[in-house]
UniProtKB/TrEMBL annotation:
PANTHER family: AMINO ACID PERMEASE (PTHR43341), GENERAL AMINO-ACID PERMEASE GAP1 (PTHR43341:SF1). This is Gamma-aminobutyrate permease. The chain crosses the membrane at residues 25-44, 50-70, 104-126, 132-150, 162-183, 203-224, 245-266, 291-311, 344-365, 371-396, 416-435, 447-467. GO terms for cellular component: membrane. The lineage of its organism: Bacteria, Bacillati, Bacillota, Bacilli, Bacillales. It comes from Paenibacillus xylanivorans.
Length: 488
């Protein structure tokens, strides 16, 4: 095994235990969660069916380009460090350092947030039970899935994704049958697309607000880049999984929002109420109940519970692998780069789990409050990761050509270069800058709201510029970008 400095080392290595079906389902299930099952109703209510479709389609196109960029990077250089490795190789070691810690922090906090959400969901059935007990049980579950082997993570994500995908397919089937009156009584047709001022409602800023929120719904798709480092055959499995992204976005988001909008008018008051404390008014639940399925709320509660556990499971896997990669590259304490005999970065996993224990605060301060606070704490970290992917791919391709390499030798080649990464870069900047533009549009600036929305940005800049100042790093010239050194 070679490290970054081409020194031969010995010891256990990461296991290539993720098969093609695991990679496909990680890609398929990555962005299916509360953003689709809950937030889609709020999006339709705020911007109308047309506004919601435009916003989700625009973000979907951006994510598609990001995933093709990541696909080109991950097939050429599959690495558990993924984003931070690519940024350090093709842009600047300081950017790689900041991206790695930003990604770890984002997903480590997400574990805690999803565990807090799971306690809220489980209290749908057991309202008087202990939050601490459920947080502990769920934390032990996802830790066990990750500590067994990488295949344990892959298998659990495979079945979590199967549940989510099956739910959406059943929902779409039932919805289409309702639209044409085959079930549920009278055919609703397209009448709800013309209710009030539909299909667009609230004007440009309403659509912009949904556009900002839609970005959060798609976060998780980038996990395929981390998983590539432990794929049995990344040059075949990663492109196959990446190609699923466009169709997933089309089917699972665009069609689902269309079906919801056709069956439930955007003026329906319950669309605004769908959240973790109101599973009964999830737009999916509303449609199923309208079709005559009385147990819809319980079924959707169970599906959404698997979704948040899936997000926590993925967060623990990805954040521990990136933390391991940071340690391996000398950007984190060395003990975090040790692997056990099964190829699991145990110390990185334990530290990440310790952060997940923050979910226990749910029992002290109230489940919904803590979930919201933890989610806000990670802020825009995901968008910063996407921004870094776009920059890394742009520099990768330019360096590849500058060094006289043949583009036909790439195992997977992203189309639409350089439009793809530039388009994704611009949209990510718009999302980041406009995340809480309302804080600056009133008579007085809402400093509290601005702090919550933008805190991730100065933290990232401190990491980036601080490392750059201490280590005296510079942007790597295109001719000097390293395409040859292996990390595993």
């Amino acid at each position: 095994m070679q490290d970054r400095n081409n020194q031969t080392t010995t010891g256990p290595t990461l296991k290539k235990g993720l098969r093609a079906r695991h990679m496909t389902m990680i890609a398929l299930g990555g962005s299916i969660g509360t953003g689709l099952f809950l937030a889609s109703g709020t999006a339709i209510s705020n911007a109308g069916p047309g506004g919601a479709l435009i916003a989700y389609a625009a973000v979907g196109i951006m994510v598609f380009f990001l995933m093709t960029s990541l696909g080109e990077l991950a097939t050429f250089m599959p690495d558990s460090g993924s984003f931070n490795t690519y940024a350090a190789r093709f842009v600047d070691p300081a950017l790689g350092f900041a991206m790695g810690w930003n990604f770890w922090y984002n997903w480590a906090v997400t574990i805690a947030a999803e565990l807090a959400a799971a306690t809220v969901l489980i209290k749908y059935w057991f309202p008087d039970s202990s939050s601490m007990l459920w947080s502990l049980l769920f934390l032990v579950l996802i830790f066990a899935l990750n500590v067994l082997s990488v295949k344990g993570y892959g298998e659990s994500e495979y079945w979590f994704a199967i549940i989510k995908v099956a739910t959406v397919i059943i929902f779409l089937t039932v919805g289409v049958l309702m639209i044409f009156g085959i079930i549920g009584g009278e055919a609703v047709g397209f009448s709800n697309f013309t209710v009030g001022d539909a299909p667009f409602h609230g004007g440009f800023f309403a659509v912009l607000g949904v556009f900002m929120a839609a970005g959060f719904s798609f976060q998780g798709t980038e996990l395929i880049g981390v998983a590539a480092g432990e794929s049995e055959n990344p040059r075949e499995n990663v492109p196959r999984a990446i190609r699923q992204v466009f169709w997933r976005i089309l089917i699972f988001y665009i069609l689902a929002i269309t079906v919801i909008s056709l069956i439930i008018p955007y003026t329906h008051p319950d669309l605004l109420k769908g959240d973790l404390n109101n599973i009964g008014v999830s737009p999916f639940t509303l449609v199923f109940e309208k079709a005559g399925l009385a147990i819809a709320a319980s079924v959707m509660n169970a599906v959404i519970l698997t979704s948040v556990l899936s997000a926590g499971n993925s967060g623990m896997y990805a954040s521990s692998r990136v933390l391991y990669a940071l340690a391996r590259d000398g950007k984190a304490p060395r003990f975090l780069g040790r692997l056990n005999k099964k190829g699991i970065p145990m110390n990185a996993l334990l530290l990440t789990t310790a952060v997940g224990m923050l979910a226990f605060l749910a029992s002290l301060f109230g489940d919904g409050i803590v979930y919201t606070w933890l989610l806000n704490a990670s802020g825009m970290c995901g968008f910063i990761t996407w921004l870094g992917i776009a920059i890394s791919h742009y520099r990768f391709r330019r360096a590849y050509v500058a060094q006289g390499r043949d583009l036909n030798d790439l195992p997977y080649r992203a189309r639409w270069f350089p439009f793809g990464p530039i388009f994704a870069f611009v949209l990510c900047i718009i999302v980041i800058v406009g995340q809480n533009y309302q804080a600056f549009t009133g008579d007085q600036i809402d400093w509290s709201g601005a702090l919550v929305a933008y805190l991730s940005v100065p933290l990232f800049l401190i990491l980036w510029l601080g490392y750059k100042f201490i280590k005296k790093t510079k942007v790597i010239p295109l001719q000097e970008c390293d395409f040859t050194t292996t990390n595993e």
